[in-house]
Specification:
By secondary structure, the protein is α+β, with helices and mostly antiparallel strands. It folds into three domains: about 70 residues, Immunoglobulins (Immunoglobulin-like); about 130 residues, Alpha-Beta Plaits; about 100 residues, no CATH class. It contains four helices and 20 strands.
Length: about 300
């Protein structure tokens, strides 16, 4: 049985040709071309998503043949989770200075509990109102809302499986520490007399987050069973600037031709695009032509290649 002889492999990807000569440009420590035609990518990044083609030239039965194999690569990660928490306290008064003092104390205390777990507190809000208890005694209640947020969402690199698992454990540990703090009532003497946690009022809701440049609304992977619910790199024409789960179409007047972007490129000065989700700069055109075409829908575009012809 005759075998394939003298195979020559040529890879192309989202950034163009991938050769050993171009590896320094492509961060050679992450790309590896093997002698048998394999392309290995290490420490994969969002921008590595896209179309890849392996072109093989070889001799078979004495004939020179060429074959192409096409791949579509998506970079994805498990969604990170924040915890949106709320709790209630009885307070002696809703006076602004008293509430502000307690807020400061509580914020500093909770931050110290989770600081070594790579977590931070966000969206800190309070509401103080008058209430009546079962004995019709007037009391004051302070409702506290805050979010425990994973710092990893601010890091560009995709976590490895062990890091992702460790992050989940740390979030659980952060929640446990906060719950124990409220239940045990570890407050100092300056707050003990007029501020008291209402047992059982601590509630939490987990919320998914994707890293910037990723989203969960990618149609191409809706039926994927490998990682259902995962965050996938936003495709060309879309972007994600915040740590939510949605990839957004580039607004009119901008475009994006890459995967995993956190913003879109603006069209050149005095140019715009007709639609949202433009993928290339070629979709940008002169605003002047747009206006003229709108006012004169039957006017031939060929005549306005020279602006001065409009005066004729």
């Amino acid at each position: 049985m005759q075998k394939i002889t003298d195979p020559q492999y040529q890879w192309t990807g989202p950034r163009g040709s991938i050769t050993k000569e171009r590896l320094p440009v492509l961060k050679s420590h992450r790309f590896l071309l093997t002698n048998v035609g394999n392309l290995d990518i290490y420490n994969i990044e969002a921008s590595d998503s896209g179309h890849y083609t392996c072109k093989v030239k070889y001799i078979y039965h004495g004939k020179q043949l060429t074959s192409e194999i096409h791949f579509m690569v998506y970079v994805y990660h498990m969604p990170w989770k924040s915890i949106h928490l709320s709790s209630e306290f009885t307070v002696g008064t809703c006076e602004t200075s008293t509430v502000a003092s307690f807020e400061k104390y509580l914020f500093q205390k909770l931050e110290s509990l989770i600081s070594n777990l790579d977590r931070e507190l966000k969206q800190w809000t309070t509401q103080c109102h008058t209430a009546t208890d079962t004995l019709e005694k007037i009391t004051h209640k302070l409702t506290l809302h805050f979010v425990v947020y994973p710092l990893v969402l601010t890091i560009a690199d995709i976590c490895r499986s062990s890091q992702c698992e460790n992050s989940t454990n740390k979030m659980k540990e952060a929640y446990t520490k906060i719950r124990q703090f409220f239940e045990v009532q570890k407050t100092d003497s300056s707050h003990r007399d007029d501020l008291s946690y209402v047992p059982g009022t601590l509630t939490g809701v987990k919320v998914d987050h994707c890293k910037p440049g990723f989203g969960k609304n990618i149609n191409d992977l809706n039926n994927n069973t490998t990682c259902p619910g995962c965050c996938v790199t936003c495709p060309p024409g879309q972007f994600s600037a915040k740590s939510n789960t949605i990839c957004t179409l580039c607004p009119a007047g901008s475009y994006n031709g890459k995967y995993g972007q956190v913003e879109c490129e603006n069209c050149p000065k005095a140019q715009s695009s007709d639609r949202r989700g433009a993928e290339t700069e070629t979709e940008c055109h002169s605003k002047f032509i747009d206006l003229f075409t709108f006012l004169n829908p039957c006017f031939s575009l060929k005549r306005i290649t020279d602006p001065f012809s409009l005066l004729l």
